[in-house]
Amino acid sequence: MRKITGLSASALVLMIGCGRSPQPHADGLIHVLVSILPQRQFVEAVGGNAVTVHVLIPPGASPATYDPKPNDLIRVEEAHVYFRIGHIGFEQSHLPKIESLNPDMQIVDTSRGIELRFFAEDEAHTHGHAAEDSARPDEENAPSAHGPSGDVDPHVWMSPPAVKIQVATIAASLAEMAPLQAEQFRANAAAYTDKLDRVHQELKAMFAGLHSPNLLVFHPAWGYFADTYGLKQIAIEQAGKDPSPDRMQRIIGIAKASDIRVIFVQQQFSRGIARSVAEEIGGVVVTVDPLAADYLANLKTVGETIFEYLNH
C-alpha cells in the first residue's frame, strides 16, 4: 500500500484522451474519495486534519444514476485512496474507469466484514446502471449473484453497527498509509464509535415502544435500519422502476390491511407515485433522507420522524 511520506504522482489519462501528470500534493494531506455524503463524516471523524475528502455523488443526486463530472475525474487523479461504500450502482458502473484514471490509488471496500442483507419480495429492486450485486469475481467481499431473497441491499450505512465496521476499516487503512499518525486515527475512530453507540442505544430504546413495525417506503433504502430496529420495510418501487398496476394494487392492499397511513420518500426520487398511493390509503407522504451530510444528527432525526408517524 502506498505510504504518505513523500507524495508521488503517476502519469494518468483523462477521459478525453489527453495525458496529464498530477502534481505532488504540497498540502501534505491524504486525499480521499468517497461515494456518498455520509461517508465524508466517517472519514473526517477518523482522519481529522490529516485528510481532505471529495464526495463523488453530490447532494440531491442519486447513487443509482449519477455520472461523474470532469471535476470528479480530476479529483480521482489526485486521490490516494477511495473508500467505496460497497455495492451501489454508481460504483459498479464507474469503478473500472476510476481505476484506470489512477492505478496507484488504493480502493477500499468499506462493506468488508458487514453481514450483507438481501432484498425480500416486497423490497425487490435493482439500481439504474447495473445490478448492485454484480460485484467483480475478484472482489474480496463479493456476494453471490443472488442471496436467499434477492439482490444485495447496498445501503449498509443505514445501520450504526455496520457503520462501526466501516469506521474501523477506514482507520486501519489510513493507519497503514500514514503510520506515524496511526494512534491518532485509532483514537479518533474510537471517539466516533462511542457517538454511534450512543445514538444506536437511543434509537433502540425508542423503537422498543413502537406500535406498528410496518415501514412503507418508495425506494428500499431502509432495510438495514429496519432490521436493526425491528421494523419491516415494504417498498413501492420494484427493480428500480415504477411499479406495475398490479403491484400498486398489491401495495395499496397491504397498506389498508395493515392500517399503514404514511409513505416515506427521499428527495432523490419522484414523489408522484407515492402521493397516488397515499391518496388511496388516506395517508401522507413524509420525506426522510438517507444521504444527509451530518450522519449522526440525521440518524436521530430520521429515527424520531419514523417513530412519530408509525406510532400515530
Quick structural summary:
With 312 residues, this protein is of the alpha/beta class.
Descriptive notes:
The chain is an alpha/beta fold and 312 residues long. It folds into 2 domains: 12-200, Nitrogenase molybdenum iron protein domain (Rossmann fold, 3-Layer(aba) Sandwich); 208-310, Nitrogenase molybdenum iron protein domain (Rossmann fold). Helices cover 39% and strands 12% of the residues. The chain has helices at 37-47, 70-78, 89-101, 160-177, 182-207, 223-228, 245-257, 272-281, 295-310, and strands at residues 12-13, 19-20, 30-34, 51-55, 81-84, 106-109, 214-217, 232-235, 262-265, 284-287. The strands form 4 sheets. The chain has a 4-stranded parallel beta sheet with strand order 4-3-5-6, with helices on both faces. Strands 1-2 form a two-stranded antiparallel sheet. The chain is globular. The chain starts with 11 loop residues before the first strand and ends with a helix. Mean pLDDT is 85; it is low at 5-24 and 126-149.
Describe the secondary-structure layout.
Blueprint: E1 12-13, E2 19-20, E3 30-34, H1 37-47, E4 51-55, H2 70-78, E5 81-84, H3 89-101, E6 106-109, H4 160-177, H5 182-207, E7 214-217, H6 223-228, E8 232-235, H7 245-257, E9 262-265, H8 272-281, E10 284-287, H9 295-310
Parallel strand pairs: 3-4, 3-5, 5-6, 7-8, 9-10
Antiparallel strand pairs: 1-2
